[in-house]
Specification:
5 strands, two-stranded antiparallel ribbon, single chain, alpha+beta, flat, about 80 residues, 3 helices, about 25% strand
């Protein structure tokens, strides 16, 4: 049976495949945005690095207007955490 983290990573990989160049990984948080480990314990799916630091997966998907004529000017960024 696969863990929740593995399933989540598979879903993220599928989104990367679907959105290709419109899928961008968020940059790492700045020092003032880093939360303590106890702050993250409320989240079920937490990504942990070897040092024990905690960071949830974050990415941005650019969703453009369906008409190619307007896609360059009409779009929004879906920020996902």
């Amino acid at each position: 049976m696969e863990s929740a983290e593995e399933l989540q990573q598979q879903e993220i990989t599928a989104l990367q495949s679907i959105y290709a160049e419109d899928f961008k990984e968020s940059p790492p948080p700045k020092a003032w945005k880093v939360w303590s480990l106890s702050s993250y314990r409320i989240f079920a799916n937490v990504v942990r690095s070897e040092q024990g630091a905690v960071r949830l997966p974050e990415f941005i998907i650019r969703v453009a207007h369906p008409d190619p004529q307007h896609a360059a000017k009409i779009y929004f960024h879906l920020n996902t955490k």
